[in-house]
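Researcher: I'd like a structural prediction for the single chain below. Treat it as a standalone chain; there are no partners to consider.
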Amino acid sequence: MEWSLLALVKLGAALALAVPLAAYLMQDKLIFQARPLSELERQAIAARHPEVADIFLQAADGTRLHAWHIKAIAGAPLVLYFGGNAEEVSWMLDELPRRHTGAAWLLVDYRGYGSSGGAPSEQSLTNDALAWYDRFADSSPRIFAFGRSLGSGVAVRLAAERPLSGLLLVAPFDSMVAVGKHHYPFLPVGLLLRHRFDSLSVAPKLAAPLLCIVATHDDVIPPEHARPLYDAWAGPKRWLELAAGHNDTDNHPDYWPSIRTFLAAR
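Model: Treating it as a single chain, here is the predicted structure.
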């Protein structure tokens, strides 16, 4: 069957509209790959870790938020942990005790993740991070933010709104727009993206100390997307490059010692 030139033009136009439209409609599922827990799963995890506080917080819009609070000795710093876009953070309950960081940790469930209700968005995750910070500000002498991958965007937004003793960013990015253009060069990402997580624009205003950890073999967020953020950072900073992939940094021998040193120095 032969196609007329007009038919081919119409088909091309339809595809040119359909692909960006599909990307726009599906972006929430691409960016936020929620990992919810059932109530029975949450209870089972809590039963395995009786030393960990299983806490809830009601957001300003009424959404019920959840986090795991690993306590430490009086006067220890508190680390607010914001995970990756497909991360269910309770796995850290087994990981952290054997790492002896000397800090208390709050492992935050994003909306729709773990045992938190609601649906995630850039603004809601930022608002929730502020709410968790405010919940502990009076009882914690030093608060750090730890952002992994997507969580780096949340941590940086928190740093722009609240005083922090330091930030630990693992596989961070300059902006979601820049990362999107890297992976989807054929799409008008700048026009389509609703959740922009533009960390680069606020970095020159941030004076908190920074530990920036990147993976040399990261094909999700290549180190070149962390470098502009690091270069623009106004406060004291350290760049740590590990021979690892996006999800392998924790296993590198320099990873946890560098985190312990950073926390102890402040």
